[in-house]
Amino acid sequence: KGMATPEKATITLGAMKMLDPCRLKPDSIETERIITVLDETIAKLELSSLIPWIIDSLDRFADMLGPEITNSLIEHQKLSHEVGHLLASSEEGDPLRAEEQQGCLCLLEQRLKCSVRNVLRLLLANPSLCQALKYEARLRESPAEAFIKAFGEFRDFILERLLTSPVEEEEKIQFTEDISLQIKKNTEAITALQAELAAAIRTREEEVHKKDNVIKDLKTSMQDVTKDCKAGIQQIKQEGKKQQKEELHASQVRCARLQQDVQQLRAQLDALVLEHRASELALRKRKCRAEMEIVNWIQKYDTDMGEKQAEYEEVHAAYAEEKAQLSLLMEKHAVLLQEYSQIEEERRICQNKEEQALKELTTRTLAATRIQAFWRGYLVRSLFKSKKKKTKKGKSKKTKK
User: Fold this and answer.
1) Out of 3, 31, 157, 230, which could bridge 26 as a Cys pair, Cβ 3.0 to 4.6 Å?
2) DSSP track, 8-65
3) Calpha distance 54→162 (Å, rounded)
4) pTM of the full predicted structure?
5) 149: pLDDT confidence band, cut at 50, 70 and 90?
């Protein structure tokens, strides 16, 4: 409760530096990618935990979800029921069909996983729908909430590990060592205070013993001075002895109880030490496994991203080449289209001229036919007229004779 020492001030500043929220910001693309993957995983876990609740309230959200998502959820519900029935029948059925049921169960599980992925894909394609569903389910407790919370803590732990440099790790170790040293000093101070307390207790007991001796001397002197009060003094002595025995018995009982408490506390301390050592070993193993998994995931992610980048470059090069070819073909197509238009225009003009010439030829042919017919008729009429005149002249000559 006194003034803070320079060592304590240094430790406090170091702790504040390590717990500074400004440090919890990604400082590299790889860190941002890893954190993005973890955040997307948390979002998918939250949506996955909402699927059973959405299926239970499917009539309520049918208009909001749309026909495609509704059909996918109905199919997912059917698969879930099939898996449940198959599990129930495998527990109650005969063991001869266990292998066949196990194979069917594996197929249904694969279909169920594909159904979950399909539903998540459809939901994530509509961010506003996801926000609305999360808002509707904000007051509902999900069985997977603890797992999602633990995964969020795992995400924060990974972020802290990624943002901790080797120098900061050494500072953290030094900070832990300083804390341990401070605890050791406090323990030594407590031990010294306990020793002082024991010395004070012994001093008090010696003073009490001296007082008892003084009382005995006074009693003896009182016996010598007042023999008449011997009976009263004897009675007082008996009462004092009785009280002393009672106090001694009470002290022995209290000491036995304290000894028993000390033994119980010591046994609890040993059990806690063993438990904490086992927990520390399990946490160390878990930490090693997590680090190995993270390294493997990072390597796999880098490999996949390299392959995707190479594939993207190939596709982009092919796209550029095809785009250049398309531009050349478009230019040629424009030229050919212009030439085709000119040719079509010339053909149309020629066809019009041919039609006009054919029309004129038809008109002339019809006119010539009519003229020839008129001329033939004229010749026939002229021939008949001449014959009629000749016959009339012959008849008149005959009559005159």
Assistant:
1) 31
2) HHHHHHHHHHHT-GGG-S--SHHHHHHHHHHHHHHHHHHHHHHHHHHHHTHHHHHHHH
3) 37
4) 0.34
5) confident
